[in-house]
């Protein structure tokens, strides 16, 4: 009798595990393939060989690239090389990506940059916020951009218990930001278990020197974050739920859910087209290829444009798509003056003239 009961319980456990596995494959879009959508005037950016996970462009056309991200679950083409911040002037006829010098005292050897965001203060000071994972821990670094020297002056390192697994960030003041946690836990095994069990425990945190608090929660895996041009709404990408959440910003900096846009792809970082207010999304059509790297069957790339997201029926169009033959694992797309930049988690970056 005892053996029959044990076998019955084992069968139930295996069935539940099988259901979870199938559910995870569905969340990863493991069977999806993408048809190419090409752009005519594109070339790979020299000097970016191991990922440009996030890109942010200033109103004057200076673009910042977060390069060289390394994560325990991701492939890397340069596992022993620290990350960095590159800059490209999109006003130049043939712009080049140049690495910015970082001030002494900052540990460059452990620099592992992830999401980035810029903030321009009332005195025109430019601050660059960088999610950093030194030794796979979680910090937010604040730099002052010194344009004449092409350098970054490190001002502050932020650590907090409410920032256990930071992915992306949107700056709303010189020391103020919203950040996404893509996991509830910081321990690698618990992160995997959390994802496998689909716990929906990830969140958005507001940070200021005077207050740190969770302002939105219940996401499968909160990822990219950005703010509307009128500063009224925060957009959050839930990568494994294939959703973009529109959240209304309250006077106390809390966020209230307004709507959710469902998509058929894994949505990563979000950028805003300054000329139209459209949202550009770097996407992963097939997440399994992204996490289980096979050079013979590499991860594909996809860029979506979302128009009128506040309307009842937003318009979603595919700007670019590639099966991995040119660009693998697109994570971000940013536009400036008919120029499009597409970055990736661990591969190359693309410059296109629209």
From TrEMBL:
Keywords: Calcium, Disulfide bond, Glycoprotein, Hydrolase, Membrane, Metal-binding, Signal. Binds 2 calcium ions per subunit. InterPro entries: 6-blade_b-propeller_TolB-like, Arylesterase, Paraoxonase2, Serum_paraoxonase/arylesterase. Transmembrane segments: none annotated. It catalyses: an N-acyl-L-homoserine lactone + H2O = an N-acyl-L-homoserine + H(+); a phenyl acetate + H2O = a phenol + acetate + H(+). Its EC number is 3.1.1.2. It is found in: Membrane. It is a peripheral membrane protein. Coiled coil: none annotated. Residues 1-15 form the signal peptide. Its main location: membrane. The keyword Repressor does not apply. Its cofactor is Ca(2+). Belongs to the paraoxonase family. Homotrimer. This is Paraoxonase. It comes from Rangifer tarandus platyrhynchus (Svalbard reindeer).
